[in-house]
Known about the structure:
Helices cover 75% and strands 2% of the residues. It is mainly α. The protein has 11 helices and 2 strands; from the N terminus they run ααββααααααααα. It has one domain (4-265).
Amino acid sequence: xxxxxxxxxxxxxxxxxxIYYPGRLVVDTATMVARCGVLLLLYSYxxxxxxxxxxxxxxxxxxxxxFFYFSFSIxxxxxxxxxxxxxxxxxxxxxxxxxxxxxxxxRMWWQLGAGLYQFGLISVLGALVLAFSxxxxxxMSAAVFLPTMIAVVGLGILLSLSLYAVVGLLAFxxxxxxxxxxxxxxxxxxxxxxxxxxxxxPAFMYKIALWSPFGASQFxxxxxxxxxxxxxxxxxxxxxxxxxxxxxxxxxxxLSAKQKVSxxxx
Length: 266
């Protein structure tokens, strides 16, 4: 609990800051409307051309799946990589390493807190708009939906932070991690179901999305499909497995990076 309390205080401070200075909220709302809103309008037209169903998937299910992706992306957990790289390039990491809180934990808590207010507000408002405009999939009324939704979001946050932490920590050895970040981020976007709903994936692509950490970090997009009721134990297990592996790798890289800073910095 002692290790968690500073993180909770940091999140509270960042949330209050976002409330008093809503500039990021305005930007994220505009981005959500521009990307997700326009995309849903396009897909609604495509589904109408195909009689309302594509690959046994209705527009309502596809729309909620894509909405969940864009909603989760408002947390901007991907920015963790760039934040770590900037700290390394500027030398600020040497100062932060001497703080009472672990540098890696500090950066993760900070990244979560920086996007939490916008995520909560935009997700609720967006969900209400979507519910009134196109309705709710039957799967969202199932008893298993809400608890598994909370679990998959929690594990998705942990996995995303661990995955992008691994990329960011490579900055201790690679001066510019941008190419690596770009590859990982595009893999998450492609396999997470951003611009193409998961249900419309070809079989080989779905398997990659299912078993890779890139697709697993976005399992929130799978929760609205009829198969979720039978698949959630497997998918939560896959997420948990990747959290352990990626968090373990991030920890090893961080310990090695601390040693590198100590040796080079004296």
